[in-house]
Amino acid sequence: MSESEYKLGIAQSLIGGGKVSRRDFIHLGLAAGLTVAAADRLFVSTARAEPMQGGFAKLGMAHGATTDSIDPAGYPDTFTQTAFSGSLSNSLTEVDAKGNVQPDLAESFETSDGAKTWAFKLRKGATFHNGKTVTADDVVTSLQYHMGKDTKSAAKSLLDSVADVKADGPETVVFTLKDGNADFPYIMSDYHLVIMPAKDGKADWASGVRTGAFVLENFQPGVSAKLKRNPNYFKNGKPYLDEVEFIAITDLAARMAALSTGEVDYIGRADLKTLGMLKRNPKVEIVEVTGYGHYTLPMNVTMAPFDNPDVRMALKWAINRQEIVDKIFLGHATVANDNPIAPAIKFAKDPQPQHSFDPEKAKHYLKKAGMENLKVDLSVADAAFAGAVDAASLIRETAAQCGIDVNVVREAEDAYWDNVWLKKPWCASYWSGRATADWMFTQAFAADSSWNESFWKNPHFNELLVQARAETDEAKRAAMYAEMQQLTHDDGGSIVLVFNNFVSAQSKKLAHGDVAPNWENDGLKMAERWWIATA
Amino acid sequence: MTRSDSVAAVRRLRRSRATRAKTALKKAPFSAWFGIVVILGYVFVAVFAHWIAPYGETQVFSEAFAPWSQEFKLGTDQLGRDMLTRLIYGARNTIAIAVATTLLSFAVGVSLGLLAALYRGWLDQILSRAVDVLMSIPSLIFALVLLTIFGSSITSLIVIIALLDSTRVFRLSRAVGLNVAVMEYVEVARLRGEGPKWIIAKEILPNVMPPLVAEFGLRFCFVFLTVAALSFLGVGIQPPTADWGSMVRENATLITYGDVTPLLPAGAIALLTVSVNFVVDWFLQATSGLRDEK
Amino acid sequence: MNPVARTVLQRLGLGLVTLFIVSIIIFSAIAMLPGDFAKATLGQSATPETVAAFQREIGIDRPPVERYFVWVAQMLHGDFGSSFASRTGYRRTVAEIIAPRLYNTMFLAAVTALIAVPLALGLGILAALYRNGWFDRLVNVATLTTISFPEFFVAYMLAYLVISRDTFIGSDFAQTLPHWLTVSLNWALNAVPKFPTLSNVNDQTPFWEHLWKVALPAITLTLVIVAHMMRMTRAAIINMLASPYIDMARLKGMSPIVIVLRHALPNAWAPIVTVVAFNLAYLIVGVVVVEVVFVYPGIGQLMVDAVKSRDVPVVQACALIFAATYILLNLLADVISIATNPRLLHPR
């Protein structure tokens, strides 16, 4: 490497910090033997690739309601999650772009006693927005906020496995679990489990004082939230943006229009129908991430006719998943195979055979069940997932070719989760997915889980679940998870239709690194991770 | 002049209903003719949807959003169903719903309104106050709540929209009914001992027709819009039934990119609305006292 | 007693009774809806224990009748209560939630009314003046067409116009047109002001910016309500033109404009004012769809949100505001009808 090339390399690394001007850079480039145009191009592309400080971004969120609050017991949708969990606060851990767990407010964590005890060491010098140092007591009260009899937190069942949490000195928090869990640090990345200052022995959420990259400036529930850069943030150099405004735009067409006219710089959940047309806009970039989220059609296996495994099998073969992916998600989803573990997750193994549309097989299982004139109701609403009603209409058509009469019942969108899910024998449901196989199975398939949506209680599956959780031999663990995935595929009551992609669109003004797959909006942390590109 | 001559003369003057209608039609302006032809066309399509439509109402083809072609005259919708077929079945379902809703709301509204006008007193007070209450609740949101409670089947959709609409019909028919109920001929009929059914049907109704018909035209068209608005707010017709209001909603986002698909059902509604109101305008003019100088 | 004062007093009394009944109806309707605030908020992640804890805190574990009377008692003290979204140490009163929303709704209604009412009256008078002529027909068809499109559709089309300013020239559609047409259409589109498609205002938005941001919603609503008012104005005036006293004026050789403005219009106010009041009430009560499309934080969207989350105190307050608006505007219309009609003003 020549000296000038070396200088150019250094200059390139300085662009990100804004320490080298375009003009100086081009001079260096010429010295290194580049043409002016090539040096300029290099400057622009480097400037986009390297985070820049400063700027104001308006982010259009697909949700937002007047009942939203900064209380982490709730955070029901992407507005509150992205603005208040991902930007305003931190959890002990976070999930990176590769899907691995990383320390966040914790500096490190270690386990002992067969994954039953977990010690998290806090980052030195991390402070709350009001300047107070984060201590182990703050962490303990914050987590206890979601535990116990009187909590109203949606994360309560997540922490059911925690027997005890206590401070060990000012910088260490020790968790004791009821059973060993090798994936516990993943659970600590959950967006509800943010750290709040303790006040009189209770977690103080109402003040909005947290540890995050941004400080709350103005919040109008259901309208917008404005946040300002936290100058004392504990992560070096982050965040890049000076200011962000989250705007609630629940109407799909309004969201697309606002991005087209440049009134917002980013929109979550872009409209798939018009995505092709949006792509033609040269100022817009589309980001698509295959996440862990999946759409399911749980059948209640305690009720007839779904108590018959052959009926379940017949229905699994009577659905044209590829058609659903093509038509309803316009290709922005992946066909699933009645297995809730997304391919990107550790220990995922695709069970065989792939369930697809096969009227012969469906009829064969119907005959085996002795129900050749099967008639079933399928309860759906777009509250379960966008496109659920259309998907049901397609299922009705394909099932009819197998001799199954599927009666599509469109339920009211409000109170869908209360009224239909876990109540109607066959309905539509959505899981945003979990970062580990154990977490997903424990919440949606374990016999004693309150969200076991198909009421499926396979004894062998449940034995394996407990064994695998504490097993430290990776190979043995992998074999157990493979067997469990095969069981849900063959015997389970949930038809897992597709894994959905997170599709967002933004102005090319915004730049970012690799996008995390665990939640939407770059793992909810886009405000902290993204920046404004100069070019 | 003999007696029979004068009777014949009177007969000649009071031409039969059919001939009166015929002469009125002859004199009808172009807009009225246009309206009648369009309405008849819609009715024809609606009644014979099954025979006219090239494909089945819910038949799914492999290509979604197919362009206009020989096979799919107006392309296919988001699930790959033939758009033309959906529009034709949509005519049947939408018009049937609109007709049923409007008829029901007028049956309830007109009969109660005229009864209130005829009897006044406590009946009028109770009905009028009840209508005041219902009208002061925002109807779209109230319909949304009621449909969530009772489930959004077609029957409950029709009954709920009809009942909420009937408040306005009640107001109107009571107001015009009051003017007629004080006329001498109504008083005479009452003294003759005729029942309320007879008085309303034979004496009052014929004399309050024009404003009611005008209202019928508008109300009829608003049913489509109500269904569309409700489907916008998330309660609507059960799939896979085709109806124009929901079809507009499903494809509405395409309009922000200049795609014409959502214009088809919206245009179908607009054309029908304009046509119905042309006919209503003509009817009003033909029955009103105004003899214009031109 | 003055007939105006008597009507006002009588109607205000009846109005209070109406409000009371409305509150009972709305309360029972929300109680009949499946689910409650706790379940709606927790959604898919609700467990029986968390739901129970939630219900205890906001008091919805009490029987409905008891809750209703507690609410009435509060109302009688002039207190709208607290939203269920309140928590211990974090009170969100209904009044503070509703106030900015109500202001926004009133703002949009006022702007729309200032455009729509004069426009409708003007068009109505002109249509009556040149009745059955080409102008009359054109206005009639145009207004009928605008009301026959669903509101959200009109709104999307307006948004499309604004977006097209930038994208039209590159679209496939533009390529298929002859060159001169593409150029002139593009020129016409660029003449459209770049109205914001997002009307997200907040309490810090300055007045002029607020006005600029409600441009598209106001135009949408104008298109939606003009037809009704215009048709009624036309019909009312034409109805008057059939009266003998107009024939008299005509025989005296007065010009048609003078006849319409000086003789027909003053006697046609009553039906016109009734329809105008009805439409103004609609602007306040019925614009939820337009609010959603343009992301405008008005009271309609607040009420739909509150119904969805079963936030009963907020729903009740919204319903009462809507009902009161309706009652007051109707009363105003009746007062104007009486005041403009000497026979009603001075009864024998």
Write the layout of secondary structure elements.
The complex is a heterotrimer of chains A (about 525), B (about 290) and C (about 350).
Chain A: H1 3-15, H2 22-31, H3 36-49, E1 56-61, H4 78-87, E2 93-95, E3 101-103, E4 106-112, E5 117-122, H5 136-144, E6 162-167, E7 172-177, H6 184-187, E8 198-199, E9 202-203, E10 214-220, E11 224-229, E12 243-248, H7 252-260, E13 266-267, H8 275-279, E14 284-298, H9 309-317, H10 321-327, E15 333-335, H11 359-369, E16 375-380, H12 388-401, E17 405-410, H13 416-419, E18 429-431, H14 437-444, H15 459-470, H16 474-490, E19 494-507, E20 510-511, H17 520-523, H18 526-529, E21 531-532
Parallel strand pairs in A: 1-12, 1-13, 16-17
Antiparallel strand pairs in A: 2-3, 4-5, 5-7, 6-7, 8-9, 10-11, 11-12, 13-19, 14-18, 14-19, 15-19, 20-21
Helix pairs in contact in A: 1-2, 2-3, 9-11, 15-16
Chain B: H1 3-13, H2 17-27, H3 30-47, H4 49-52, H5 83-119, H6 121-135, H7 139-150, H8 154-181, H9 184-191, H10 196-232, H11 244-251, H12 263-287
Helix pairs in contact in B: 3-5, 3-12, 5-6, 5-8, 5-10, 6-8, 7-8, 8-10, 9-10, 10-11, 10-12, 11-12
Chain C: H1 3-32, H2 37-42, H3 48-58, H4 64-76, H5 94-129, H6 134-148, H7 151-167, H8 172-176, H9 179-191, H10 207-213, H11 215-241, H12 244-251, H13 256-285, H14 288-293, H15 299-309, H16 312-339, H17 342-345
Describe the structure.
The complex is a heterotrimer of chains A (535), B (294) and C (348). Chain A is α+β, with helices and mostly antiparallel strands. Chain A is built from 18 helices and 21 strands. In chain A, the strands form six sheets. In chain A, strands 1, 10, 11, 12, 13, 14, 15, 18 and 19 form a nine-stranded mixed β-sheet that branches. With 294 residues, chain B is mostly helical. Chain B has one domain (29-48, 83-288): MetI-like (MetI-like fold). Chain B has helices spanning 3-13, 17-27, 30-47, 49-52, 83-119, 121-135, 139-150, 154-181, 184-191, 196-232, 244-251, 263-287. Chain C has 348 residues and is mostly helical. Chain C has a domain at 101-298: MetI-like fold (Orthogonal Bundle), CATH 1.10.3720. In chain C, 77% of the residues lie in helices and 0% in strands. Chain C has 17 helices and no strands. Chain C has helices at residues 3-32, 37-42, 48-58, 64-76, 94-129, 134-148, 151-167, 172-176, 179-191, 207-213, 215-241, 244-251, 256-285, 288-293, 299-309, 312-339, 342-345. The model of chain C has no long low-confidence stretch (mean pLDDT 84).
